[in-house]
Design brief:
heterodimer, A: mainly alpha, Cytochrome Bc1 Complex, Chain D, domain 2, B: mainly beta, Methylamine Dehydrogenase, Chain H, 2 domains, ten-stranded mixed β-sheet, six-stranded mixed β-sheet
């Protein structure tokens, strides 16, 4: 009797193990509510992600306090800006798709020119003091916006290049 | 009401009495006063007043300390491989340790000296000598990195080095051990009269600091122990202490201590320079390495040089004289005015001080006591300025405070003794714990010392710190010398065995300290200046990976198509352009150290995978909140596999 029980137990466990094995083979990897956020810090009304928010009146924190853009794009400056962007920014930003950081395409529809330049020139203080920059840091997994030590002139050229990205 | 008023007054007056007590205590400042701690306390976030560059002795390195705090900031690798910074491990710096004897990954670093302009410390470079396989290194104080190492031929035990003249015209390297020049196979017992001592004058380019051997003075076969340049009135001369004028080659303790007096050799290098500039000297075939690190390519090249210009002192009359100095002098130190040359006879009870003016007069009068191998010997009394009578036992080194005082270390009696230059009277003495060797006053080897502190470097510490097994730390001690009496302020441990140090005000160096390397100016042949240019290139079984780093990823971070038996060069460029954001990298099984890459810099390590598999690499220097995510994989296939060469970063990012 005892040995029958033992045998049954062994068979049953084998069955279970088999089942488990088969099921795992069906899928690659596993799923554990990967997409559901467990962070409760975001408030309900923050349903719009920071990258999609429109904050044209926010000038940010940094050396640029006011900047008027001419109606025409300065092509020469934009070309220079594209070159600077390629050298200094493409490690984390691609023009038209989200990469490590957000894509600059259409950024002038969401951000003020001052905010953009301050984010380039003064990222450490921006993520500390500017609420939107802080939110963006969280949205992009805590990847810091690196200070690439651009001159104001270079940052201005990058901004002009951004105006061409629509 | 009145009572309350009275008691308030009473309490106040008690306070006043107490406070004034404290004040008076502070101004008295005895050795046991609580404010000794205040004198070395540099509050968190504040900076020290002085830099001290302390040699590491047998560690082969130079360590950078702050004074008065005694805090260690950096160990600069010079003559020894340093896995922490990949010095001598990465492909870029391996050539720095090349010599005529091949790759020599260690040396014994002795006497750092800071470059000077017009006799004053200028804070541009530190020079230091490698003692064992004779070399002189130059450290650039804008990057705190060793940027040049020149081997010294015909030299052995490069000890009377690496002191600079007052416009950094030359950095001088004298041999301690005399040897056959040129080297040859001969019996050791034939030393006397046949071995020679080379004193090497290495010119320093005033703009870039590039070193070049101008000439070697081939002297009699004594041991040339230490040296110092003339300054002010004696600028143009160099002074070398000697021992073993007996020219013994065995049982030196006895045989090199026979003569009552050895010599301080006075060399008129300006005269020899003129002789050489006019075509004098004999070009001798030799072989030595000259290694230069280029900041723009971030890599070093090693060139073997095949000849050296030698000068026989007898061919330049009036260029070299010998001043008799009692009992195996060690230190040979020149006061800030350039008038006095202090010889510390190790085995003598007294300190001997020579006068430059009296030496010139003796030369003028052509009054000599004789000659050694044709080099005139000045009468002992003729150049003697004075004697510091029985100041202590075992004098070694002397520094000056610029206020007319000298400070000499005594190894056997283990103390620093302060004495007055000119009157030769002893003013003060303080014990050292224990057995002091060198000492350093910032700017001490110049016309303008900063006489606020002296650092004593001790050979033995025994019970001064918590024990750490049989080997205990060596130690420096800081004394306040701003008052009449010296005051011991602080003990601090040192890296390796400190032989001498050089110090200067922090303000001289701080504003010039580089923060990043400009990516635009990176001319490394394997640099990758944009992530869009990263690639993997196969040339037979050599594979070049052009990789970049930025917070917090490598590009590429997935590589396939590497095979067992490949030699994979990872050329990694740090794209960061922000202060204090280095990245590190290594891969499992790499037979070398990590890389530690500064912003804008490119470094290379080699990996020769021996096993099939998928092998991770990662960033070794904590760089950001996502540092742990800074990782990647290399797929290694069998030697005969057909896995295509592929590289990528984030292909699945939408």
């Amino acid at each position: 009797m005892k040995s029958t029980l033992k045998l049954m137990t062994i068979l049953f466990s084998l069955l279970l193990m088999n089942c488990g094995g088969k099921e795992e083979k069906k899928k690659e990897g596993f799923s554990y509510e990967k997409k559901t956020t467990t962070e409760q810090t975001l408030k309900k009304e923050d349903a719009v992600p920071a990258s999609k928010k429109i904050t044209l009146n926010n000038k940010g924190v940094g050396p640029i306090t006011s900047l008027d853009l001419s109606s025409e794009i300065d092509q020469e400056m934009a070309t220079h800006g594209a070159d600077v962007f390629k050298k200094m920014c493409t490690a984390c930003h691609r023009a038209d798709k989200k990469f490590i950081g957000p894509a600059p395409t259409g950024i002038l529809e969401r951000r003020s020119p001052e905010w953009i330049m301050n984010m380039i020139l003064n990222p450490e203080e921006m993520v500390q003091k500017d609420p939107l920059a802080k939110e963006l840091l969280i949205e992009f997994n805590g990847s810091p916006m690196a200070n690439q030590n651009l001159t104001q002139e270079e940052a201005r050229a990058v901004l002009e290049y951004f105006r061409t990205l629509k | 009401m009145k009572n309350i008023f009275k008691s308030v007054v009473a309490i106040l007056s008690v306070f006043i009495v107490f406070t004034s007590c404290n004040n008076s205590k502070q101004s008295n400042s005895g050795a046991l006063a609580g404010n000794v701690a205040d004198k070395v306390y540099v509050a968190p976030g504040e900076h020290d007043e002085f830099y001290a560059f302390i040699s590491g002795g047998f560690s082969g390195q130079v360590s950078v300390y702050g004074l008065p705090s005694g805090r260690l900031f950096k160990v600069i690798p010079v003559f020894s491989q340093d896995a922490e910074k990949a010095w001598g491990y990465n492909e870029e710096t391996k050539p720095m340790l090349n010599t005529s004897h091949g790759f020599v990954p260690w040396d014994d670093a002795h006497h750092p000296d800071i470059s000077q302009t017009n006799g004053v410390i200028d804070g541009r470079w530190v020079f230091i000598n490698g003692n064992n396989t004779p070399r002189i290194a130059k450290i650039d104080l804008s990057t705190f990195e060793t940027t040049e190492i020149i081997e010294v031929p015909n030299s052995a035990g490069n000890h009377s080095s690496s002191f600079v003249t007052e416009n950094t015209e030359y950095v001088v390297a004298g041999t301690r051990f005399s040897v056959p020049v040129p080297q040859k196979d001969m019996p050791i017992k034939d030393y006397k009269g046949n071995f020679k001592g080379a004193l090497t004058f290495i010119s320093v380019d005033p703009e870039h600091g590039h070193m070049d051997i101008k000439f070697q003075l081939i002297m009699p076969g004594f041991d040339y122990d230490l040296s110092h340049p003339g300054r002010g009135k004696s600028h143009g001369w160099f002074f070398f202490s000697t021992y073993n004028t007996e020219e013994a080659s065995t049982l030196m303790e006895v045989n090199a201590s026979q003569n009552d007096k050895d010599f301080i050799a006075a060399v008129n290098w300006k005269k020899i320079e003129e002789y050489v500039n006019n075509g004098g000297g004999i070009m001798m075939p030799t072989n030595y390495a000259h290694n230069v690190y280029d900041e723009s390519t971030h890599m070093a090249t090693s060139t073997m040089k095949k000849e050296v210009l030698t000068v026989n002192p007898l061919d330049v009359p009036g260029a070299v004289y010998l001043m008799p100095t009692p009992k195996s002098p060690h230190g040979c130190d020149v006061d800030p005015t350039g008038e006095y040359i202090v010889g510390s006879g190790k085995l003598s009870a007294n300190l001997t001080v020579h006068s430059f003016t009296k030496m010139l007069a003796a030369i003028e009068n052509q009054k000599f006591a004789g000659d050694a191998y044709g080099i005139p010997i000045i009468n002992f009394e003729d150049s003697l300025a004075g004697v510091v009578e029985q100041p202590g036992l075992g004098p070694l080194h002397t520094e000056f405070d610029g206020q007319g005082n000298a400070y000499t270390t005594f190894f056997i009696s283990s103390e620093v003794v302060k004495w007055k230059v000119g009157t030769w009277e002893v003013l003060d003495r303080q014990p050292c714990y224990y057995s002091v060797g060198h000492l350093m006053i910032p700017g001490g080897n110049s016309q303008k010392p900063f006489g606020k502190y002296v650092v004593a470097m001790n050979k033995i510490t025994k019970d001064r710190y918590l024990p750490t097994g049989p080997e205990v730390t060596q130690s420096a001690q800081l004394y306040d010398i701003s008052g009449d009496k010296m005051e011991l302020l602080l003990d601090f441990p040192t890296v390796g065995e400190p032989h001498y140090a050089a110090g200067c005000p922090a303000d001289l160096i701080k504003p010039r300290s580089k923060k990043i390397f400009n990516l635009e100016d990176n001319n490394h042949p394997y640099a990758t200046k944009s992530e869009l240019d990263t690639k993997v290139v196969r040339e037979g079984n050599i594979v070049h990976v052009y990789m970049t780093t930025i917070r917090s990823h490598f590009s590429p971070d997935n590589i396939e198509g590497i095979k067992v038996g490949d030699k994979v060069y990872f050329h990694v460029t740090n794209l960061e352009q922000d202060y204090d954001v280095p990245h590190g990298v290594s891969i499992i099984g790499a037979n070398t150290s990590e890389l530690l890459i500064m912003p804008g810099q490119t470094e290379t390590f080699v990996w020769e995978p021996k096993q099939v598999g998928v092998w991770p690499f990662y960033c070794t220097d904590f760089c950001s909140a996502l540092h742990q995510e800074m990782q990647g994989y290399v797929r290694v296939s069998a030697a005969n596999a057909n896995t295509p060469l592929k590289w990528s970063l984030g292909e699945d990012i939408e």
